[in-house]
Structure formats: structure tokens, C-alpha cells
Amino acid sequence: MIVRAAFHPLERSAKLRIDRSIIAKRGIDMSFALSTVRRRSLALAAVTLFGLVLAGCGINNVPTLEERAKAAWSEVQNQYQRRADLIPNLVETVKGYASQEREVLTQVIEARAKATQVKVDASTITDPAKFKEYQDAQNALTGALGRLLVTVERYPELKSNQNFLALQSQLEGTENRVAVARRDYIQAVQSFNTEIRTFPGVIWARLFWGAKAMETFSAAAGAEKPPEVKF
Q1: What is the pLDDT of residue 99?
Q2: In terms of Cα–Cα distance, which of 199, 171, 204, 211 is closest to 79?
Q3: Which of 9, 144, 212, 220 could bond 111 through an S-S bridge, CB–CB 3.0 to 4.6 Å?
Q4: Which pLDDT does position 41 carry in this prediction?
Q5: pLDDT number for residue 134
Q6: Which residues touch 213 (CB under 8 Å, ≥6 apart)?
């Protein structure tokens, strides 16, 4: 025969209070957990919404246009370097037929040396002094090459030399690529500078990116006039 122990009324009341306390505590814990999850979800949603709002306001335009301008600048450097690499062979070929044109040849050699000695990198395009130094050196080399090609017109045998014709063709192609690269760079810089100087880009540029205006190419003096070629 099993005898069940009977709880005293006071003990039973105390047990009920303990059970209710445990249930209430668990309820509070669950409410707190749900509240924490809800707060985190709201915070995540707010951050996401804030990011979308910023993106919609063009906060990413500044770095996007900046990278585009830097890429265009790299292409300008590549094409100018390509031109510089062609000059030694061109000078040596001309020497074989027109060694008496020492002054013009020397000008080309010296102009190339100065152009290749100018140190440039990504920071050059935001430094007016460095950019001007680079542009002046390249313009001087362009002028020296122009005078050399005008001089060549006086030497029919040189003009018919296959090596010279090949170099001249490569040089002309490179000059065209330089012109295209400069044009693309000027357009990219114009877009970037406009963005960081107008609303709302000016805000993002100052508060988030610290962007600086970039330098651009200007036409060299006399560039609007074609060289005079006398036969």
C-alpha cells in the first residue's frame, strides 16, 4: 500500500509562489530576448536603409569617378612612354642620312631625357606644380619631334628608308593614341571635378573622401597652328 505524503497548506502555497516566480522570470527572459532580437533587427534595417539613402544620394560617385580619372591618367602615361621608347631608334635612323642636322637631333635627345626624368604617379594629378612640369616636358618633346620630322623632308633617301617609314608610322600611331588618351583623361577629370564641386558631391567629397580637384591638360602655345613644312 502506497502512502502519499500530504503537503501542509503553507508548504503548498509557498511552492505555488515559487512556481509562479519561475514562470514570471522565464516570461521576462523571453520578452527580453525577443526585445533584443527586435532591436537588432531594427538597427540592421536602419543601417541598410541609411546605406541605400546614401547610395541614392551619390556618395559612391566620388570614388567611382576618381578611379576612372586615375585609370585615364595611367593610359596617358603609357602612351607617352611608348612614344619615348620609339625615339632612340628614330634618332639613330635619321643620323645615318642627316648627321649634319646635329642641332635638331640634340634637341630631340635632350627633350626626351627631360620628359623621362620627370617623376610622376597618382599624386601628380592633384599637384599643380608637378603636373605642369610633366606637361611642359611632354610639350617640349612634341615640339622637338615636330622640328625633326620637318627636317626629314629635305632628305628624300631617308624618307624612302623602310626602317624610317616603319618608325614614322609607329610614331604617328602613338601620337594619335596620346591624343585620345589625353581627351579621355580631360573628360574624366572634368566629370570628377564637377562632382566634387557641386551638391551633393561636395558634401561627400569633404566629409567622407577628402577628395581634391585634379589637374588637366591645357593646349600648348601655338598648338592651334599646324607646323609649316617647306619642300
Answers
A1: 84
A2: 171
A3: 144
A4: 61
A5: 97
A6: 126, 193, 196, 197
pTM for this entry: 0.73
In the prediction, which pLDDT does 227 show? 44
Of 205, 215, 39, 57, nearest to 123 (Cα)?
215
* Rounded alpha-carbon distances, angstroms, from residue 119 to 76, 102, 133, 134: 14, 28, 9, 8
C-alpha cell at 207: 566629409
The topology under which CATH files domain 60-209 is de novo design (two linked rop proteins) (1.20.1440)
CB atoms within 10 A of CB 189: 23
The CA distance from 17 to 37, in Å, is 30
Low-confidence ranges of the chain (pLDDT < 50): 1-3, 7, 49-56, 223-231
What residues does each domain of the chain span?
Answer: 10-56, 60-209
* Residue found under cell 544620394: 57
Q: What is the 3-state secondary structure (H, E, C) of the chain?
A: CCCCCCCCHHHHHHHHHHHHHHHHHHHHHHHHHHHHHHHHHHHHHHHHHHHHHHHHCCCCHHHHHHHHHHHHHHHHHHHHHHHHHHHHHHHHHHHHHHCCCHHHHHHHHHHHHHHHHCCCCHHHHHCHHHHHHHHHHHHHHHHHHHHHHHHHCCCHHHHCCHHHHHHHHHHHHHHHHHHHHHHHHHHHHHHHHHHHHCCCHHHHHHHHHCCCCCCCCCCCCCCCCCCCCCC
Residue 145 CA to residue 156 CA, distance in Å, equals 18
The pLDDT score that the predictor gives to residue 228 is: 47
